[in-house]
């Protein structure tokens, strides 16, 4: 098996805010991330696809096709958007990295499987800041 990676980026605004809590409780739990007038991040999304190289092309998956898929099905929906307001698949959800990455997985997993026979989505990695990032392998429970 070979693991092939494609990194994409997007810029987006959000706030971490539980509507069932008071403003004070949100500020206590989320700190500046609960700022009611939003804040922004430069996100990086790394998509890892697993498979065996095709004998004719040497590719597990064509990285150009993978990049186009990620951009059309995920990046274009979140780039320069307010994640709490503008993105239908995040509506009503807490927009932590954990929730964002699991929603990305639901979109990408079936589409990646169609790119090349035997190739499958292995892992997503989402950087919210250069120091804060999450990884998701599609395990259930979220
Ligand atoms: N488990 C999670 N914890 C936190 C999340 C998250 O999505 N999942 N998100 C945030 C904030 O949105 C944001 O990431 C915090 O930004 P910031 O504190 O500026 O980030 P840094 O740690 O990189 O900045 P430092 O200057 O190093 O503190 C918070 N928690």
UniProtKB/TrEMBL annotation:
One of its GO terms (molecular function) is metal ion binding. It is an enzyme of class 4 (lyase). It catalyses: 7,8-dihydroneopterin 3'-triphosphate + H2O = 6-carboxy-5,6,7,8-tetrahydropterin + triphosphate + acetaldehyde + 2 H(+). Its cofactor is Zn(2+). InterPro entries: 6-PTP_synth/QueD, 6-PTP_synth/QueD_sf. Pathway: Purine metabolism; 7-cyano-7-deazaguanine biosynthesis. It holds the Pfam family PTPS. Its EC number is 4.1.2.50. Keywords: Lyase, Metal-binding, Zinc. Belongs to the PTPS family. QueD subfamily. This is 6-carboxy-5,6,7,8-tetrahydropterin synthase. It comes from Marivirga aurantiaca.
């Amino acid at each position: 098996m070979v693991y092939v990676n494609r990194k994409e980026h997007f810029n987006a605004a959000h706030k971490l805010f539980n509507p069932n809590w008071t403003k004070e409780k949100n500020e206590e739990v989320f700190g500046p991330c609960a700022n009611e007038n939003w804040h922004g991040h430069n996100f990086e999304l790394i998509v890892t696809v697993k498979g065996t190289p095709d004998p004719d092309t040497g590719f597990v998956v064509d990285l150009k096709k993978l990049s186009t898929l990620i951009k059309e099905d995920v990046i274009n929906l979140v780039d320069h958007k307010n994640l709490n307001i503008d993105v239908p698949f995040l509506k009503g959800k807490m927009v932590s990295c954990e929730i964002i990455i699991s929603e990305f997985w639901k979109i990408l997993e079936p589409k990646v499987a169609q790119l090349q026979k035997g190739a499958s989505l292995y892992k997503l990695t989402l950087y919210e800041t250069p120091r804060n990032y999450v990884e998701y392998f599609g395990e259930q429970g979220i």
